[in-house]
Design brief:
By secondary structure, this protein is α/β, with parallel strands linked by helices. 42% of the residues lie in helices and 19% in strands. It is built from 12 helices and 15 strands. Helix 3 runs parallel beside helix 5 and helix 8 runs parallel beside helix 9.
Length: 355
């Protein structure tokens, strides 16, 4: 596929657009820790490091209050990835978040207030080297556009705001036009891509739980990515953030835009299974997602699938009761005890990754 060439935007040390790798984003879902609660703060940083290891490139935080100024400033300095501040309604909070060190802010200029307030925010961003995402969705369109075609309304509104920004000599802008309806989302991004060269952040808003969110996002974003549209991506899921990152990486891998990381193969389990592949996979999946090596790992429930259907896997694990076996490219290489199977698997993955 041929990706559309877009303007390069700098978000901290990350490049977005201009054929840079598509950046995966997620959003922090918990309140900020108290200013002097070092334990909670370290737990937050540990989570961010885990996200980064899994392939996340950008982390977004809601910034609803000046009470969090000190902690947010510290996060901006110490985060392992660029930090985005999500701002609604209060233009002064947007300027404050920029001063705290946010690498990008996400605003809908329509709910920031008067145009002069938006200009103040944009000028502050320019002064601090901070990028801006214009984030639009169907529920936040200007009133005059809410009764018509939401896709056309979002595109027209985004283009109007881009004209504002350009009139203030600001071009470090990313745009999103998300919607809960998948076809509206698809049409909006296609049309916006046709009319502008700014990088686009892809997503379906309020997509639901794991199953509905991944299904809807795959249908919409997979098509857009296949057409070369999109520079950053978030799979919005009402669940743990690790699922968002994993789903985004898998979509990028499936459409051929990312080759790193573990490609996981696992059987759905059946009546002949005597090895609890489901429980084993649930236990190790998060750890697998933190391995960046381009390996195929198969978790199979019986010795039919182990050496047979998983013959193409770099490494496969299966078993009969308490007896667990490791295969490589369909050949048995080792029998291990069930209680040591996880460590034996990861030991071999590590060896293959550095072979």
């Amino acid at each position: 596929m041929n990706r559309k060439h877009t303007r390069e935007i700098r978000v901290g040390n990350l490049s977005i657009g201009n054929n840079a790798p598509i950046a995966i984003q997620t959003m922090w879902s918990q309140p900020f820790p108290a200013e002097h609660d070092d334990t909670a703060y370290e737990q937050l940083l540990t989570s961010l490091r885990t996200y980064a290891t899994m392939g996340c490139s950008v982390i977004r935080f809601s910034y609803p209050s000046s009470d969090d100024k000190a902690v947010f400033s510290r996060i901006c300095k110490e985060s392992p990835m660029p930090v985005v501040a999500d701002i609604h309604f209060d233009w002064k909070l947007a300027i404050e978040a920029i001063a705290c060190g946010a690498h990008k802010i996400r605003i809908n200029p329509g709910n920031i207030g008067a145009k002069w307030k938006v200009e103040e925010v944009v000028r502050a961003a320019a002064a601090h080297g901070c990028a801006i995402r214009i984030g639009l969705n169907g529920g936040s369109l200007p009133l005059r556009l809410r009764e018509g075609d939401h896709a056309a309304g979002m595109v027209a509104t985004a283009l109007e705001y881009l004209e504002w920004f350009e009139s203030w000599s600001f071009d470090q802008t990313v745009v999103s036009v998300k919607h809960t309806d998948v076809e509206t989302t698809y049409r909006a991004y296609r049309e916006l891509s046709r009319q502008t060269g700014y990088p686009l952040h892809l997503g379906v808003t309020e997509a639901g739980g794991v199953i509905t969110a991944v299904t809807r996002s795959t249908w919409v974003l997979g098509r857009l990515l296949h057409e070369g549209i999109g520079d950053t991506i978030r799979i919005s899921i009402t669940d743990d953030r690790e699922h968002e990152i994993a789903a985004a990486r898998e979509i990028l891998r499936t459409v051929g835009l990312e080759s790193g990381g573990i490609r996981l193969v696992s059987c759905p389990r059946c009546g002949r299974a005597s090895f609890d592949s489901q429980a084993f996979l649930k236990r190790i999946q998060g750890r697998l997602l933190q391995v960046d090596a381009p390996l195929t790992v198969a978790i199979m429930g019986c010795q039919v699938n182990g050496p047979g259907e998983a013959a193409h896997a770099d490494i496969a694990i299966t078993g009969i009761g308490n007896r667990v076996y490791l295969y490589e490219k369909g050949k048995l290489v080792k029998e291990v005890r069930s209680e040591t199977a996880e460590e034996e698997l990861f030991k071999r993955i590590e060896e293959l990754a550095h072979a």
